[in-house]
From TrEMBL, chain A:
PROSITE patterns: HAMP (PS50885), HIS_KIN (PS50109). Member of a two-component regulatory system. It comes from Pseudomonas peli. Keywords: ATP-binding, Cell inner membrane, Cell membrane, Kinase, Membrane, Nucleotide-binding, Phosphoprotein, Transferase, Transmembrane, Transmembrane helix, Two-component regulatory system. Residues 242-455 form the Histidine kinase domain. It is found in: Cell inner membrane. This is Sensor protein. InterPro entries: CztS_silS_copS, HAMP_dom, HATPase_C_sf, HATPase_dom, His_kinase_dom, HisK_dim/P_dom, HisK_dim/P_sf, Sig_transdc_His_kin-like_C.
TrEMBL record, chain B:
Pfam families: Response_reg, Trans_reg_C. GO terms for biological process: regulation of DNA-templated transcription. Residues 123-221 bind DNA. Residues 123-221 form the OmpR/PhoB-type domain. Keywords: DNA-binding, Phosphoprotein, Transcription, Transcription regulation, Two-component regulatory system. It comes from Pseudomonas peli. Residues 2-115 form the Response regulatory domain. One of its GO terms (molecular function) is phosphorelay response regulator activity. The modification 4-aspartylphosphate is found at residue 51. This is Heavy metal response regulator.
């Protein structure tokens, strides 16, 4: 069972109630304490005053006996049932006794001065007493007050306090609940608004609650998140569309070619041609799927890469050897200016550079050079592949690394990378926490891989 | 040599059994795991080609059952090439794997390697027709004349010679000669073969390096 309620408004109301109970309790307790002290002090003063007056009466009368014969002198001064008065001589004889409740005579120590104390008897009794000498007689004056009435009054007061406290807590809960309900109204609005946003309505945004600063921050953050989601979603759907498109071309080639061939009997050669051409298309499809899977895996946040110390000159040399034949056929010279080391996944770096080199050879002009160079600057290792050739138009540059992006939509060379080569380069760089950059001008086109050193 | 193919995809099973039959193997086909298990228990095979996704008893389970008693080499086929899958297969005792879609030449090469059994022979001298390659001296002669090759051309010729008569796919060549273990869409292998041919084949009457259309390249003395 959950003790803590789920609803925020109820939680707030409970907290309101707890806080007000605590505050009311503290105030009530201190008020009660001071009241109790005040009453006790007054009672004590009254008792002391009574002793003084008795003393004065004794002083005015000739003898104690004369005083006893005129009890009205002091009886009216007492006048109620909870006041007690004794005058006792040293033999223990009660010379004057006013004791309506018939309390036993308390045993008290001697006191030269007026002394206050509580009696030990069963009922609560406050006493003030004083020893005086009248002629040769030692008298003890005792004034007392039964505390039962005071106790009853305080008890009633305590009860009222408890009642006030409970009613206060209850009201605090109720009001707190109402206030929280009202205060949380914008949250419900936010929730309603958010509930209306689904895949079809990703363009919707939450209202910004300008007058509620907490909610303003929240709705701003949520809106930013929505913008990112919308972006990612748009990219994803564009991507699936592109993918379907890209698969259509080879599939339609396959279907058309096969149907056309089957339409009438052919020579064995023609059948063989069909199969070979089909295989080329299958290869394209298979490579595309491989590349897609590679991209999907590399872009996963938890994609693990196998970092090792890579000798750049050696790595570039391997690639130059690999592309040596192709380069010679295009009359392009491969220049390895790579140096130093890098901590990265050698397989992935090789793949990224291979894609860049294949492009450089594809678009480089004959009788020129393709240069692979590396440099270290500001904690970033930069590997660049430069080729001479037609500059890429500026409007294409930012989109060059998108999947299936082609500068010239009609171009679809047989050895084209299917529009995924540069996307793969970018995702490899992201996996390394780095980035890829391209510059293109009359002086040629240059792709740079930037590896931050500290990510290693 | 007898091969068992356990594969539920009828078309795949069909072309595998046809192709392997044409290469001179005796092929049995099981279209599900239980039939496969039954055949394995009844007969003796030299190699089992096993699809992972099978109805009833899946490839992993069948592999475990096989490994309880037999050490027959197992080549498994999978459409999922997540690293964990490959590792799982190899841990369960498979000898090799191929990810779909695979090239038939690749499959045939793997089958041959698995059936060769024992450690590969360390051949140092290769002779096909009048082509001779000496691995230790790194020397190639054709018709008694010295042929000068670059390092990579030498490695390529060595690979072709050591797999004489086998079709080698471009992917396999790229990964063996240049350690490029990803499918590259460049024509690097074709260019390299062309250049090798220019030195080894073109000046001579008898051509040894053959293009197998749609599959790859092969070195063989065809009459």
């Amino acid at each position: 069972m959950r003790l803590w309620p789920r609803a925020l408004s109820v939680r707030l109301a409970v907290m309101f109630a707890l806080v007000s109970t605590l505050l009311l309790g503290l105030i009530g307790f201190s008020l009660y304490q001071s009241l109790q002290r005040e009453i006790a002090w007054r009672d004590d003063q009254a008792l002391l005053g009574r002793l003084e007056r008795m003393q004065a009466l004794l002083d005015d009368s000739q003898s104690i006996e004369a005083l006893r014969s005129r009890p009205q002198l002091y009886e009216n001064m007492l006048g109620n049932r909870d006041s007690l008065l004794w005058i006792i001589d040293d033999a223990g004889q009660r010379l004057i006794e006013i004791n309506p409740t018939l309390m036993p005579l308390p045993v008290l120590p001697a006191a030269e001065r007026a002394t206050l104390g509580d009696s030990q008897s069963s009922e609560l009794l406050r006493l003030a007493w004083l020893d005086v000498t009248r002629g040769d007689r030692r008298l003890t004056l005792i004034a007392g007050k039964l505390l039962s009435e005071r106790e009853q009054m305080l008890a009633a007061y305590r009860l009222k306090l408890w009642l006030a406290l409970s009613v206060g807590a209850f009201l605090a809960f109720g009001f707190g609940w109402l206030v929280s309900l009202r205060g949380l109204q914008p949250v419900r609005q936010l929730a309603m608004r958010a509930a209306a946003i689904d895949v079809q309505h990703l363009h919707l945004r939450l209202d910004e609650f300008k007058d509620v600063s907490e909610l303003q921050a929240l709705s701003k953050a949520l809106n930013l998140m929505l913008a990112r989601l919308e972006d990612g979603f748009a990219q994803l759907s564009r991507f699936s569309e592109d993918l379907a498109h890209e698969m259509r071309t080879p599939l339609s080639n396959l279907m058309g070619h096969a149907q056309q061939t089957l339409a009438r009997p052919r020579s064995v050669d023609e059948y063989q041609n069909l199969l070979v051409s089909n295989l080329e298309e299958y290869d394209r499809l298979a490579r595309m799927i491989d590349s897609m899977l590679f991209l999907a895996r590399t872009e996963q946040a938890d994609a693990s890469i196998n970092r090792q110390l890579v000798d750049l000159h050696e790595l570039v040399e391997q690639l130059c050897e690999y592309f040596d034949g192709t380069a010679q056929e295009c009359a392009i010279e491969l220049i390895n200016k790579g140096s130093g080391t890098l901590v990265a996944d050698p397989q992935l770096v090789r793949r990224a550079l291979a894609n860049l080199l294949a492009n450089a050879l594809r678009y480089g002009i004959p009788d020129s050079a393709v240069t692979i160079s590396s440099s270290l600057c500001d904690g970033v290792v930069e590997i660049s592949v430069h080729n001479f050739g037609e500059p890429i138009a500026a409007e294409h540059l930012p989109r060059l690394f998108e999947r299936f992006y082609r500068c010239d939509p009609s171009r679809n060379q047989p050895d084209d990378s299917g529009g995924l080569g540069l996307a793969i380069v970018r995702s490899i760089m992201h996996a390394h926490g780095g980035q890829v950059r391209v510059t293109s001008a009359q002086a040629g086109t240059s792709f740079s891989l930037l590896f931050p050193l500290d990510s290693a | 040599m007898r091969i068992l193919v356990v594969e539920d995809e009828v078309k795949t099973a069909d072309y595998l059994s046809k192709g392997l039959g044409e290469s001179g193997y005796r092929v049995d086909v099981a279209l599900n795991g239980l039939d496969g298990q039954h055949l394995v228990q009844e007969h003796e095979f030299d190699l089992i080609i096993l699809d992972v996704m099978l109805p009833g008893l899946d490839g992993w389970q069948l592999l475990q059952i096989i490994r309880r008693k037999l050490q027959t080499p197992v080549l498994f086929l999978t459409a999922r090439d997540a690293v964990e899958d490959r590792v799982k297969g190899l841990e369960l005792g498979a000898d090799d794997y191929l990810v779909k879609p695979f090239s038939y030449a690749e499959l045939l090469a793997r089958v041959r390697t698995l059936l060769r059994r024992g450690p590969p022979r360390e051949v140092e001298q290769f002779q096909v027709a009048d082509l001779h390659l000496d691995l230790l001296r790194r020397k190639v002669t054709r018709n008694g004349e010295r042929v000068t090759l670059t390092n990579k051309e030498f490695s390529l010729l060595h690979l072709l010679l050591s797999r004489e008569g086998e079709v080698l796919s471009r992917t396999l060549i790229a990964s063996h000669v240049w350690q490029m273990n990803f499918d590259s869409d460049t024509n690097v292998v074709d260019v390299a073969i062309r250049r090798l041919r220019a030195k080894v084949d073109d000046p001579y009457q008898l051509k040894l390096i053959h293009t197998v259309r749609g599959m790859g390249y092969m070195l063989e003395a065809q009459s």
